[in-house]
Amino acid sequence: MGLETLLALVTFGIGIVMLVTHLLGGTRLDALDETRARRALIAERPDANVERCRLVQDGTGAVFWLSDGRIGVVIRVGDHPAVRIVEGHQVASLGEDRIRIHFNDVGWPPRELHLNPEPRTDDA
User: Fold this and answer.
1) Whole-number Å distance between alpha carbons of 67 and 115
2) Contact at 8 Å (CB) between 57 and 115?
């Protein structure tokens, strides 16, 4: 068997494996829910005292307002949540359900997050 034939078989085999994996749902990422995001935050910052949480609309993250005035941001990176803590002045409101966060981290550029609407509490 020549080198060209071997290379063609390996390439074809890898393509078939990737196609089958994709069709069976192996490349689909689950949305980050509040429980999983909170677990990631507490694992990274056990002293964090959460006052409230808002999930990102596309399921890629969560924003936690902490009792000390800082903000915890949990963003899904691949299949794992990554946690960053930012100061309140690093977050700008762009409307009722949008915020822009400026991270002090070269690997995390400023990011605009569209948050799920807050649950309504009707006091009557």
Assistant:
1) 20
2) yes
